[in-house]
Amino acid sequence: MKRRQFLAAGATAAVAAPIASPAIAQSAPSVRWRLVSAFPKSLDTLYGGSVELARRVSEATDGQFQIQPFAAGEIVPGGAAVIDATSKNTVECCHTCSYYGIGIDPTFAFGTCVPFGPNARQTNAWLTVGGGNDVLNEFYAKHNLYALPAGNTGVQMGGWFRKEINTVEDLKGIKFRVGGLAGNVLLKLGVVPQQIGGGDLYSSLERGTIDAAEWTGPYDDEKLGLYRVAKYYYYPGWWDQGTVISMMINRAKWDELPARYKAVLSNACAATNQWMQAKYDHENPIALKRVVAAGAILRPFSPAIMEASFKATQQTYDEINASNPTFKKILGEVMAYRDATSLWWQVSELPYDINIANLIRRAR
Amino acid sequence: MKRRQFLAAGATAAVAAPIASPAIAQSAPSVRWRLVSAFPKSLDTLYGGSVELARRVSEATDGQFQIQPFAAGEIVPGGAAVIDATSKNTVECCHTCSYYGIGIDPTFAFGTCVPFGPNARQTNAWLTVGGGNDVLNEFYAKHNLYALPAGNTGVQMGGWFRKEINTVEDLKGIKFRVGGLAGNVLLKLGVVPQQIGGGDLYSSLERGTIDAAEWTGPYDDEKLGLYRVAKYYYYPGWWDQGTVISMMINRAKWDELPARYKAVLSNACAATNQWMQAKYDHENPIALKRVVAAGAILRPFSPAIMEASFKATQQTYDEINASNPTFKKILGEVMAYRDATSLWWQVSELPYDINIANLIRRAR
Question: Span of the secretion signal (chains A, B) (predicted)?
Fold first, then answer.
């Protein structure tokens, strides 16, 4: 819909155009949306993404399209509640990991990431150019939602463990705070998955109620102080290997936006998507050095643990696939994308990053 | 500058507001810019970035801010000429690798990438959150320019060689089409750098006028047909390891844009920055398989060649630093950023990508 409004000459002349004539006046409906973030304000990168997004939209419309972010708990709790509130039009939109909705349908996971899926850049490629976001929105439409990627953490850490995990056997009986599909996968390896909010992780680890906890990466984890109560910091977080944060919008609210505001919002989401990744890529290296200096001990998951986790992931997928054809279809597409991309990665990003790591080390 | 224009009630009522009242009419000066791309239309990802950018700006302003892209050669030739034309206000803006301007000042390289610098995501982090873009714009201001990142190729390939290059000795006397600072570096290793346009690479390789040529990556290289005349395809391209394409704007033109259009343009550049990376990440894996199927033989540069190149790069930097304090200052910042980020990469992206490559291989 084109809504250019050519006004009477008198009104046009009153517009102070700093650059060029003709200046026209554009129809600029006042739109006020409430956004519920799945995250608390203390997570200034995750919650900060919604602030960044709202700022970009407001500035690109001279304040006519305003999105007001609310932190988790202010209107609704975080997690699946923000998706539900958006779906039901309690609020117009939310900024969240779609995978908080896997209790509704495991298919919600693909909007964020799934265990052993493509990394952040590969996921962006699938969503942005490979048709992935259209595939997701076909599914979201059934839940009255429209979504755009608007943030990413990159590869997260595998979590804080109170003792070393050297073998697959060592995982047995470990009470591990881990969310989503990874919990289902790790259950197959004897782990006892725990659901505990971020605010309780420190005390749970300190008291030994749990043995391990994963959150995101060094920058966010540091704020929880986990390095003081569980010093082994494992990597990589194979279940959060390019975690997308989505702008999810009530479908009717999206549909009724003027085309110009849709464009503004799409651009702002893409810009925020990039900003959040950049913010994490900037902060995590600094925070990693601090937590290591404070006593964190970095440990890779062993190849055997990675292999066992990979196989248990496939079993988990087979189980979901058996009863969920939409999940099966999208999983096939996502994993084919990952596989097709991996060869390219092995002659581009990977060898460059490996060489740089070695060259810097030898040059010291 | 806020330019909200509250019109008389009669005019406001005439605006068809599909969503909410009050609708106001915004001052929307008509801005028409000409953009000169450094790239030909056949490079639909590099040139396509300017089209994508222009589309995003237009849609977010209902066509009131229009940027018309011109391919290399249409108004000015590609390369440094587009930067010069923008600096002199022959055109309002260009979409280019800033490093085409290193003949003016080697400092122009940092807006794109420098040999053995940070990778694409790390560069984005430096530019977007780490203050890098402000540092660059301080320098650009001396050339009447303002720039925003608006595209990236990721790690490029190291080029097509007619024979295998196994040792540092094998590089001696090789006539290699390679641009920019990499040419200076490789000269120290006995390479004879050649400057040849993309359109002449095929025939030069076929006739043996040159022994090797680098362009970008599989998707672009395939179009030139280089795999038919030089089958050894080396990696990684350590001089183009996260090549930024910049939107460079004549400073006065940027300064006089209304705040809203600055915001629209900034968002569109960030969105395009992400789009181009996604497009390459989508297309390169597919094209890589095609060129390999057509006979290309993938070869890594040996550790010894990488090490010798790394050392020769440092010598090159030392020489430039000796007479160019701005280059020296920014180089120090960029390389400190790379080093600080490398440890984080080694516990996040790298181990994940390595594991995935191995797990996929073993699962087959």
Answer: 1-25
* Chain B hits for A62, Cβ within 8 Å: 2-4, 26, 259-260
Judge whether B217 and B156 are in contact, CB under 8 Å: yes
In chain B, what residues touch A113 (CB-CB under 8 Å)?
Answer: none
Find the residue in B nearest to A254 (Cα).
B19
SS3 label, residue A161: strand
- Tens of pLDDT along chain A (364 residues)? 333 333 233 333 333 334 444 555 667 899 999 999 999 999 999 999 999 999 999 999 999 999 999 999 999 998 899 999 999 999 999 999 999 999 999 999 999 999 999 999 999 999 999 999 999 999 999 999 999 999 999 999 999 999 999 999 999 999 999 988 999 999 999 999 998 888 889 999 999 999 999 999 999 999 999 999 999 999 999 999 999 999 999 999 999 999 999 999 999 999 999 999 999 999 999 999 999 999 999 999 999 999 999 999 999 999 999 999 999 999 999 999 999 999 999 999 999 999 999 999 998 8
Nearest beta carbon to residue B124 from set A270, A278, A351 = A278
Q: Report strand pairing: B4-5 vs A4-5.
A: unpaired
Q: What letter does residue B289 receive in the DSSP assignment?
A: H
Going by their DSSP bridges, the two strands A93-96 and A31-37 should be labelled as: parallel
